[in-house]
Amino acid sequence: MALGILPDDSKIDPSVTCEACEAVCCRLTVVIDASDRVPEHLIARGPNGVDTMAHGSDGWCLALDHANKRCGIYATRPSVCRKFAMGGGYCRFKRAKFANSGLSLRVL
Ligand code: SF4
Ligand code: SF4
């Protein structure tokens, strides 16, 4: 997505809830900040020194609690995840894209 056409995160759709979502944002690449405290086994060490949340073979973040569709490390989730706006432009954009993907979250 090119800069300038980023979804508008300043507008929140209050009808969107995580309870009615397949943790779509937990398929995104999450860069781990130096101040984040993420368990080592959930980190993908990048060759360029950029660490990200590791993903499972299904494409979802390894920290996701699939059965409950919740973050398994909620209290210590990365700052990027803390800032992600439920019902915001990026959330709605990713949900719409996911709806047409044919993918679905399965309980592992
Ligand atoms: S923030 Fe948005 S994309 Fe992420 S789980 Fe909640 S509703 Fe789904
Ligand atoms: S750390 Fe938690 S909130 Fe962030 S992508 Fe992984 S499961 Fe989702």
UniProtKB/TrEMBL annotation:
Q: Which domain of life is it from?
A: Bacteria
What name appears for this protein in its UniProt entry?
Answer: Putative zinc-or iron-chelating domain-containing protein
Species in which this protein is naturally found = Dokdonella immobilis
